[in-house]
Automatic annotation (TrEMBL):
InterPro entries from the UniProt entry: NAD(P)-bd_dom_sf (IPR036291), SDR (IPR050259), SDR_fam (IPR002347)
Family the UniProt entry places it in: Belongs to the short-chain dehydrogenases/reductases (SDR) family.
UniProt-listed SUPFAM superfamilies: NAD(P)-binding Rossmann-fold domains (SSF51735)
Stored PANTHER family: 3-OXOACYL-(ACYL-CARRIER-PROTEIN) REDUCTASE, NADPH-DEPENDENT REDUCTASE BACG
Source species of the chain: Halomonas cupida
Gene3D superfamilies linked: NAD(P)-binding Rossmann-like Domain (3.40.50.720)
Organism domain of life: Bacteria
Protein name: 3-oxoacyl-[acyl-carrier protein] reductase
Amino acid sequence: MDLQIAGRWAIVCAASKGLGKGCATALAREGVNLVINARNAESLETTAEELRGLDKRIKVIAVAGDIGDPQVRSALLAACPQVDILVNNNGGPPPGDFRDWSRDDWIKALDANMLTPIELIKTCVDRMAERGFGRVVNITSGAVKAPIEVLGLSNGARSGLTGFVAGLARQPRLVSRNVTINNLLPGPFDTDRLNQALNAEARASGEDLAQVTEQRLAGVPARRFGNADEFGAFCAFLCSQHAGFVTGQNLLMDGGSYPGTY
């Protein structure tokens, strides 16, 4: 399927590895020009070179730094001639027990996983509407629908973003102008984040890591963890010309783990 987005420009955050890299890779294969961001300059440039090799027609610009820093956000936006596609993504806060978290811990989580994506959305969506095309995809977490006990900081911050998007995405002045905003909710994908969570569960329970991993897999009807390429492919479709009637949705990718109907 031709997604009809070749030649457009996309910003992809936290794109040097994992799900962000999967999204950037899928967009590059569709001929989308990219401005990618991650904290580590060396790994980001390595990824940029890989992406350039996928399609010689596209431009790939790397802007390293913490996306939570206003100066880094400004540099990222300045590097992109026009933002047609915005993929918000950021590393989640550390796991733990809420009894150990200070107010500063909560503020950091909210800033990284709620306020930063909102700031980027605010900068982009009106101009998208003026041009008659825009796609925003926020990578959040399956924990928005089924909270994970040790990820309380993430549960709270990402749920805040979800509530905000639910209202914004349905504004006629955006969606009637072909600007959509959706959330992708990954479940257990084979990423550094999952490995951190599994290790935290193992430490908390006193069980062996292999046991904890098997227990997690037992709760996934697909009997495997997801991979970044399949996640990226779904993200690319949401960013396509064909997805203009999908907005304000929380789309769960979890191999059937979530047991609910709604």
